[in-house]
Amino acid sequence: MLRIRSNLLCRRSLTVLKPAGATHFLHTTSSAAKNESGPDNAEAMERSTIADLLSGNATARNSAEYVVSRLDDLVNWGRKSSIWPVSFGLACCAVEMMHFAGSRYDCERMGMVYRASPRQGDVMIVAGTLTNKMAPAMRRIYDQMPEPRYVVSMGSCANGGGYYHYSYAVVRGCNRIVPVDIYVPGYPPTAEALLFGLMQLQKKIKGNKTLLLKVRK
């Protein structure tokens, strides 16, 4: 009887003390680990999510800029291949401009078609001496042109007054009235010079990034 009771007491003590001690020990270590590593894990997770969001936004922004840049290239290709000049001949340089529009140089093969109305043109070719009396009319015609619009100054008189630079009635350069994109030197310049100037204007139109700049703003 004594042996049976002692065995029962030992078994009860083992079953009571061992699980209680084990569970208490596990509970204390897990809570301590949670308390020590909880803030670090949360901060690391927050940093990783912020980094993922930033990388995702950068990827989306780069993709959008790539698409818009390709659209810019397509639009610029159409614009540079279909330049419609507005003839604004003022003096002898206008004769070379007419020569450029003739059959020998055939500006239409490059997509250039002269328009009589400024509302249908996108390039103004100022050929000749600009006087003070003609300056308001030129500015009015320029304002009637749709955007984007460009100005080609043809000849020394249009560039800076030329031979009549010191005359009281002459504007010393059409850039004082309208913004000029291309200057064609000469007195008067040849039709080949005007052709080269318009080819330079095509290069300038090709490099425009109007839509991309709007997206980046």
Automatic annotation (TrEMBL):
Residues 92-201 form the NADH:ubiquinone oxidoreductase-like 20kDa subunit domain. It holds the Pfam family Oxidored_q6. Gene3D superfamilies: 3.40.50.12280. One of its GO terms (biological process) is mitochondrial respiratory chain complex I assembly. GO terms for cellular component: mitochondrion; respiratory chain complex I. Keywords: 4Fe-4S, Iron, Iron-sulfur, Metal-binding, NAD. GO terms for molecular function: 4 iron, 4 sulfur cluster binding; metal ion binding; NADH dehydrogenase (ubiquinone) activity; quinone binding. Belongs to the complex I 20 kDa subunit family. This is NADH:ubiquinone oxidoreductase-like 20kDa subunit domain-containing protein.
